[in-house]
Amino acid sequence: MTAASLQTSATGQPDAIDKLSELHKALADSLRLQILRLLKNESFGVLELCRIIDIRQSALSHHLKILATAELVSTRREGNSIFYRRALLTEDDVYADIKRSVFEHIDGLPVARDQLKKIGQIQLERSQLSLSFFKRNVDKFKEKQGLIVERSHYAATLHDMIAGLNLPTPTHALEVGPGEGHLLVELAAKFQHLTALDNSRDMLEMSRAAIAAAGFDHVDFLLGDTGVAIKQKVYADLIIFDMVLHHISSPAKTFKEVAALLAAGGYLLVIDLSNHDQDWVRESCGDLWLGFDDGDLDHWSNKAGLQAGQSSYLGLRNGFQIKMRVFQRAVF
To answer: What is the third-level CATH fold of 4-111?
Structure first.
């Protein structure tokens, strides 16, 4: 930090020393450090954090305000709820080194067992909401999905991105959440080793029927999530989430599990919505998250040891934007 940066601003704004003092005051509290530890990878709503820490909402809001003022956490609106996450560190943040050092130290501390249990319960509740939606709407899936986007709007771009990847021969591809099986059938025509993974039994059966109708018999079907795939040792060169990530309870955890499933040099392809404010999709389409911004995806991929690659963005007539992002596991 230069001497000039320590001088008081002529506009009357807080000078660098005041901001530095504010930052250290925000960090000088064990509960606020605990909050930052919990937000290592995940984002939580206020009520969720209240459950995890066992604290009144008014008291938690006070601490979150202090952390937000010190630019240690950032917020994201999900419909009527506000979710908190750690602030992403940027090059123009003069205190980035201090924050990075603090984050590294608290990340080495264990999370209390009872808090881990509560986090697991929250993630399970999120998953149950999504599963419940698909169970109720299994026969209306195409209609519900069509409220947001139709596959024909982005299918050609998706296949162009797959064709542009440096995939080995033979390739093992894994589609997570194949739904009615439209993309799965297209992938079956490209790859001789293909797995469909879905935690909804009903949706998995729809995919199985689509593959059978197309005359393919080389697709494996696995009921569960990426955690189950790890237990079953289903490793892949290409893993695809086609409009699925916004239904998953913990995207950050999923990125880490995907990294464990990818072969060296393997690719993760995420097709999803950019961040939006159309809250009606929660009830109508079963979405847990209102899209994602690139900062979230880059943060989760970086923590999982994946490198960001090419991307493509498509605007849609109904106000949504589709993003396609490629991430790669390093070649060792």
So the answer is: Arc Repressor Mutant, subunit A (1.10.10)
Q: Residue 281 and residue 297: Cα distance in Å, rounded?
A: 21
pLDDT value for 141: 57
Q: How far is CA 319 from CA 272, 280, 282, 330, in A?
A: 14, 13, 16, 35
What confidence score (pLDDT) does residue 143 get? 58
Which is nearest to 137 in space by CA: 206, 211, 223, 78? 206
Sequence ranges of the chain with CATH classification 3.40.50.150: 140-329
Contact 37, 109 (CB under 8 A): yes
pLDDT given for residue 6 in this prediction: 44
Which residues make Cβ contacts (< 8 Å) with residue 222, sequence separation at least 6? Answer: 195, 196, 197, 198, 228, 229, 232, 234
pLDDT at 30: 94
Residue pair 181/195 in contact (Cβ under 8 Å)? The answer is no
User: Given this structure, which CATH class describes domain 140-329?
Assistant: alpha beta
Phi then psi for residue 101, to 5 deg, are -65, -45
Q: Quick: pLDDT tens for 313-330.
A: 887 667 788 999 999 998
Contacts of 315 (CB under 8 A, 6+ apart): 321
Domain(s) labelled CATH 1.10.10.10 in the chain stretch across 4-111
Tokens at residue 201, please? 């039994």
Paired residues of 223 in beta bridges: 198
152-164: string of b/e by CB count within 10 Å (b at 16+)? eebeeebeebbee
Please give the C-alpha separations between residue 151 and each of 41, 74, 79, 110, 148, in angstroms, as whole numbers: 31, 33, 25, 43, 10
pLDDT (tens digit, 9 = 90+) per residue, 241-254? 999 999 999 999 99
With a cut of 50, list the residues of the chain below it in pLDDT: 1-12
